[in-house]
Amino acid sequence: MFVLFLLMGIASFLYFAFLLSSASYLSALWIWFLFGILHLFLAFLYKRPSRWKRKSLFFRFKVFCLTSYCLFVLLIFSVSILLSRYKKGEEDKNLDYVLLIGCELENNAPSPTMLHRLKLAVKYAEENPTTLFVLVGGRGRHSASAESSVMFQRLLWEGISSDRLLMEFYSKNTEDKIRFGLNSIEKWIEERYLEEELVQSEKGYYPEDSNYTYLKEESLEWEDRPPNVGIISSQYQLFQCVRFAEKENSFYHYRTLSAKEPPYLIPHYYVREAITIAIRSIFNQL
Known about the structure:
Blueprint lengths: L1 H21 L7 H18 L9 H29 L11 E5 L3 E2 L2 E2 L1 H16 L4 E5 L10 H11 L7 E4 L5 H29 L14 H4 L7 E7 L3 H11 L4 E7 L6 H17 L4
Parallel strand pairs: 1-4, 1-6, 4-5, 6-7
Antiparallel strand pairs: 2-3
């Protein structure tokens, strides 16, 4: 066990150094430095069994630390498995709206994680020409541009019409991105309804007339048929996104669209998300 804890401590420090040099824009990198210290401490506890007498306070402290560590690892592993397999609904075609969740920028440009999300969004937009996209994400700590504006420019470059895109600039975290994104959808529905009403009134048509038509009737009759809203994000984040969305507006029908994560970032993303979910659950914030 001493060797195992020692190797895991060294691995944690090396992974921390790797992330710091190649993906310093990520949040909570410090957890890997902390894991390194934790494993070295556990290695120290396990190395000197002769100092611990079975009835001594030190022996009980050693048992407490090792038990707590095992429970913590089991918790993180279980939550990570849940996150990796989570899915909400089937991937329907022609969803009314899709929330494209922003993430960290790298040198004011799309990071590898964002590129995967954009690739999925472009593919879905090309296959479903009636779907509208809400791009959510404000300016991060290490960037001069908002995440949504960078995604907007990328989608335009990929040939997606600006008429299908709406940006949200102010959100800073996952919960805000979902909340502000859903609020943007509500306002967009209302604006489209008013615009269509104006077009019909200019033609001399009114809702009670038989000639009254809609540009997109389904999206305007959302009181009878709740909008189908897709959420594009990385797999590790979808669970929290859906929980926040259902908490904010349980009237909509949600579908998850999972984008890939860069393989070398998977340990960091899942461990960070598992710890976040555990803490939020303790304080009833999820």
